[in-house]
Amino acid sequence: MKKKSTMLTFSLLAICYAASAQDSAQVSQLNTFVVTATKFAKKQSETGKVLTVITSRQLAQNIGRSVADVLNEQAGIVINGVGSNPGKNRELYFRGATSQYTPILMDGIPVADATGLTSSAIDLRFLPVDQVERIEILRGTQSTMYGADAIAGIINIITKKGGDKPVNAFGDLAWGSNRSLKGSLGLRGQQNNVDYNLGFTHYETDGISEAAPPDSIRDPHYDRDGIKQNSFTANVGIQATEHLKLRPFLFYSNYKSLYDGGPFVDAIENKNQSDLLHTGLRADYDLNGNGQLHGNFSYQKVTRRDESAWGITNLDGRSYFGEVYGNYNITGWLQALVGVEYRKSQMFDTAYRDPYGIREMHNTSPYAALFIKDLHGFSFELGGRYTMHSQYGNNFTYTINPSYLISDKLKIFASVASGFKAPTLTALYSIWGSPDLKPEHATSFEAGAQAFLLNDKLNLRAVAFKRDLKDVIAFIPQTNRYTNFNQQNDKGLEIEVAAQPAKGLSVRATYAYVDGEVTTQATPGKDTTYNNLVRRPNHTGTLNVGYQFTKHLFVSTTLRHTGTRYDQYYPPFPQPMEIMPLDAYTTLDAYVEYRFSPKANLFFNANNITNNKKYWEIYGYSVLGFNVAAGISFTL
């Protein structure tokens, strides 16, 4: 199987290299400004951070799909469950790490979930793609810039803002397989010193049976497990003075879903309702062009009601976030960033030992960084954060990140960074918790190069990384408890290729390799080491080819390969856990767009075109076969 994965990798690279020999527009966008790498606008050529941008155009070609679908096509990211029933939870794995090591931000502010069992990262099912302007993916340990949990990377979802005239209406409507319906409607605009964006999205589907029928049952009548979701977003930009801009925001999302009783186990009485409220204020003050002061304040509330044969569980989690920081241009080549951040998490939970108590944690962390900006091609970041935690004392994290740009054609970069992560409230205080858990500490290393070849017609990036964690926390089914392992060691490689070999033709390819092992004491005084990347393949790859046939017609296809991996299967009690090897699989998707006017277009999505149902994404759970969605999108 490794041989097949390697062959796929070389095939992807060969296609892109061959295509790049033709004439094209520029691929490299070194002068593009991004915000996630350093928390303020900075050219990509001036940072050694490994950053991927999913543009508004790419998102527009994913109407009818989800944020999870889009992320699943990026190098080093695996969204487990993305091919399963739409109501199934989505598990984010970034560079082999679980979702607890990858914070998700909205416009630079963490969207947290204090009810999370193993992670405070937000449930991806809450997030519709319709209100997203672009997504910036920052790879590697970023605890200096973004605090606890930012060990594998950062995903920053940047929402749509006001339009270019007083009123712009936009929306889309799609129908699809399994009686799916998705629609969105919004208004955005700008008048004098105020801009605004309002949007609403509704999605519903009957879905398929979440649990897969056992092979021993012929023609089982497993029921469908559907989901209904509504999301609303609003943000307003107010230019209060010449230098001060305020942006209050509100995001609300809820869904109701049905789910089954476990692998191969149907259930008709299980249902869940989940709600997210994320609201706050962003403030930016311009320092006469020499820098900015920023203030971010937010409040999140997540509630969940779960009903099953085991009873009813109500969860209520609150998260508070406040941050003030400033960036300043000391000279033409030297910049500084200084800030302080406060976080607080609370959870009210019937799973607590004390059901009437409130469990909480908080921390305050000042941080600072210096940046050398393109000093004869040399750029450098040196940063540190001092976290004062309510339960785990004081912890220091750092970042060292040099890069060098050679003749605007080749950028080489490296990074050494450390991270700190406290246990979640659930891991500490629930009936599965262990109040004596230690915090986790990480050290990560990465190095790579990005080349802009053939007169900037080919963009190639390769990155190798290594990540070491001490006292890593995991749930142990055999004991039904969270516990600390001795250490976790992960390593990997990512290759990304982009080319525009001819007018209207674009080719993108990615390949990622990851491997990891945990070391723990099997018996007192004796360590044992084994691979523990459950549901995470060693090899993944994607190939996307898009072509603008005419000014009206655009077509693209995406081929995704997922390598072999294994899953842990828990059969009915008292049978012991089984390790189940999962075969590699490949899926093929297509997108067609016909723009019959500058402000309206028809679109068609076809997923899993080969109707591949003979693979496991999660052992014992169904996967979608061939499915389609079609509809209309408009802007007025």
Automatic annotation (TrEMBL):
Pfam family for this entry, one: TonB_dep_Rec_b-barrel
Keywords (A to Z) from UniProt: Cell outer membrane, Membrane, Receptor, Signal, TonB box, Transmembrane, Transmembrane beta strand, Transport
Keyword Zinc-finger set for record: no
Superkingdom of the organism of origin: Bacteria
Compartments, as annotated in UniProt: Cell outer membrane
The keyword Transport is annotated on this UniProt entry: yes
Membrane-related topology note: Multi-pass membrane protein
UniProt similarity note: Belongs to the TonB-dependent receptor family.
Identification of the protein by name: TonB-dependent receptor
